[in-house]
Amino acid sequence: MHFSSKVTEVLGIKLPIIQAGMAGSTTPELVATVSNSGGLGTIGAGYFTANRLDSEITYVQELTDLPFAVNLFVPSEQLYVPENVEHMNAWLKPYRRALNLEEPVIDISEEQQFNEAINVVIEKGIPVVSFTFGIPKQSVIEKLKARQITLVGTATSVEEAIANESAGMDAVIAQGSEAGGHRGSFTVTSGDHTPLIGTMSLIPQVVDNVSIPVIAAGGIMDGRGIVASMVLGAEAVQMGTAFLTSEESGASTLYKNAIQHSKETDTVITNVFTGKPARGIDNEFIHKMDYYDDDIPDYPIQNQLTNGIRKAAAQKGNAQWTHLWSGQSPRLSQFVSASVLIDNIVKETRSILNK
């Protein structure tokens, strides 16, 4: 049984396994371990400054000679509404008081940070860049393509996948609604919601409508998920939550324990932490925000307003006031090294295929 496909060839990897770029939870050790194990490690650079990204890449390059990716957030057209922000700050005051926090200063230089990150990626000779939250401008795509960098987009519907292909992406991640963390959606459906199509439904429909390779994502945790994805027409899988509980992950012990002790019914999709819909384990902060009687400020504004609260709560061991992103298959999570996890997945995949 060999695992090669168009995707593994394009990405220069042995195994069709990509570790998702989980912003805030990837470490150079995780990225390098995945790449050294035959998959594609990804630096979750969504919140990084150019300097931080530069040093992170340097560190990964010291740990592996194999290809790895950088995942970037495409800047959004955010609306800064002062009254909205004031209202939200008033609502968040009790949390800040309890944690001895100051009101944060809002920084909306997303576009500049993104452009600087693109320059770092080019300077450092990164072979693969993946994008979430939309499609970058054509000028950015052309700049990266001129350097022979492989570009991978994210889609949560067939329409989004077609848009990725038209823009010149080399492959597309079809992210099912089971996926943990932020949705990669950049369109809204008729009900003014972002698409929520399950992985099993999404993959074959995307495969039938684009000619670029499709990477399956959303709820995939083991060999069974890989085989199912390939049968549906995907050429590789991207796994996030599976790597979140690995030894090399940057997730806190509090966070890893929350995933390991949660059930498939415990996650919800909420925009209360960041202003963008994301799947995570239900908790008190989400419930209290149900009573908030105004619009939640757009991403990245809400993200910045709640960031200090979430960090301080996590440090104090309070799982009720922080985000706990997780996909819908937490019962399948393993507390092992990323290399052992990949090894287990490969063995399981082989044994299913050999039956």
From TrEMBL:
Domain of life: Bacteria
Keyword Transport belongs to the record: no
Entry GO MF terms: dioxygenase activity; nitronate monooxygenase activity; nucleotide binding
Cofactor: FMN
Keywords for this protein: Detoxification, Dioxygenase, Flavoprotein, FMN, Monooxygenase, Nucleotide-binding, Oxidoreductase
Pfam families in UniProt: NMO
Catalytic activity: 3 propionate 3-nitronate + 3 O2 + H2O = 3 3-oxopropanoate + 2 nitrate + nitrite + H2O2 + 3 H(+)
Any GO BP: response to toxic substance
Family, as annotated: Belongs to the nitronate monooxygenase family. NMO class I subfamily.
Function in brief: Nitronate monooxygenase that uses molecular oxygen to catalyze the oxidative denitrification of alkyl nitronates. Acts on propionate 3-nitronate (P3N), the presumed physiological substrate. Probably functions in the detoxification of P3N, a metabolic poison produced by plants and fungi as a defense mechanism.
Name this protein carries in UniProt: Probable nitronate monooxygenase
Species the sequence originates in: Staphylococcus nepalensis
